[in-house]
Specification:
By secondary structure, the chain is mostly beta strands. Among the domains are: about 80 residues, Beta Barrel (Thrombin, subunit H), CATH 2.40.10; about 90 residues, no CATH class. The chain has 2 helices and 14 strands, in the order H-H-E-E-E-E-E-E-E-E-E-E-E-E-E-E. Strands 1-2-3-6-5-4 form a 6-stranded antiparallel barrel. Strands 7-8-11-14-13-12 form a 6-stranded antiparallel sheet, with no helix packed on it. The chain is elongated and about 85 Å long.
């Protein structure tokens, strides 16, 4: 038996052809050393799409130029979807970009605020979010602040925030003109993007554009809950009584 035939026979132990054997050997090597890296973490996982998934192994890579972003690398054949919350190093992060391959990886942003509101049933809802004047993943783009001119021809910035939050059954109910409290200031929703980072099942990252507005009497600055008006639900009618 030649050396080449002997080599091919060894490869066949891990696959039906050379390519499959190389892939399986690579996976086995990564799996055997994955936990040995100083960047290894066991992530806490919160996902509306996969509510039963609680933990996952990963490696965390810091992106030097962007302190609030991390690259997360998973074990072979494992992955998490855009919009999933993960926790590590005492912080909560949201996935907003992903790259799939033999080893999948995602980009996450650190959540710096919570989106709080009271729904029409008087229930307080709260979700971790990223609130910023810039798009996710960019510190080079211009602020989203608009400019308006007053009667003295002086340019005044109209304060705006971009808010990125998990798209789920609760956040998908947010409508235009819905009001929120951030940093003891009131903002109202002037734009909703439920398409760009949301999959066909409705899961992903919901992007809200908020504009500074005036405080109202019912705003609760202490608990960060803005006053909102909801349409009254019509009571069911009883037909055929008259």
């Amino acid at each position: 038996m030649s050396y080449l035939e002997s080599y091919q026979n060894r490869l066949k132990r891990n696959g039906s052809h050379n390519g499959e054997a190389y892939t399986n050997n690579t996976i086995a090597m990564i799996q055997s050393t994955f936990h040995a890296s100083p960047t290894f973490r066991v992530l806490g996982v919160r996902s509306a799409q996969y509510p039963d998934l609680m933990q996952m192994d990963a490696r965390i890579i810091k992106i030097e130029r962007l302190g609030s972003l991390r690259e997360v690398i998973f074990r072979p054949n494992q992955r998490l979807e855009i919009g999933t919350y993960i926790t590590f190093d005492d912080d909560t992060w949201i996935i907003f970009d992903q790259f799939r391959g033999l080893v999948s990886k995602v980009i996450v942003a650190k959540c710096n605020h919570t989106l709080r509101w009271k729904n029409q049933h008087d229930q307080i809802l709260e979700f971790d979010c990223v609130a910023s004047t810039m798009d996710l993943g960019s510190k080079t783009k211009k602020s989203k602040d608009e400019i308006r001119w007053n009667k003295y021809d002086v340019p005044l910035p109209m304060g705006q925030l971009l808010v990125f939050v998990e798209s789920n059954s609760a956040t998908s109910q947010i409508e235009l003109n819905h009001r929120f409290i951030f940093n003891r200031k009131a903002y109202e929703v002037v734009g909703i993007d439920g398409t760009t980072l949301v999959n066909k099942s409705g899961f992903g990252v919901l992007q809200l554009t908020l504009s500074l507005t005036t405080l109202q009497e019912g705003d609760d600055l202490t608990n960060r809950i803005a006053s909102n008006r909801y349409p009254l639900e019509e009571s069911p009618t009883r037909e055929g009584l008259w």
